[in-house]
Amino acid sequence: MSNDYTTLVKNIKYFRLKANMTQEQLAEKSDLSVSYIKQIEAGKEFKNITFNTFSKIAKALNIDVKELFNEIEILN
Fold it and tell me: What is the CB neighbour count within 10 angstroms for residue 61?
């Protein structure tokens, strides 16, 4: 998995947890399947993913889609 995909995977999970959402809730709010969200977060589903999918996820997380692509420093 390339660095760009690693950043996307980390950011989707980070913002989902920050929003206190489960994968199931994100799937419902973004009109995507739970299994698809799980595959994205596991870094297994990027071959056919579209910008529209990222837009749906960002909207469900109430963030700008650009935030999914920015490297953020996650403090533990």
Answer: 22
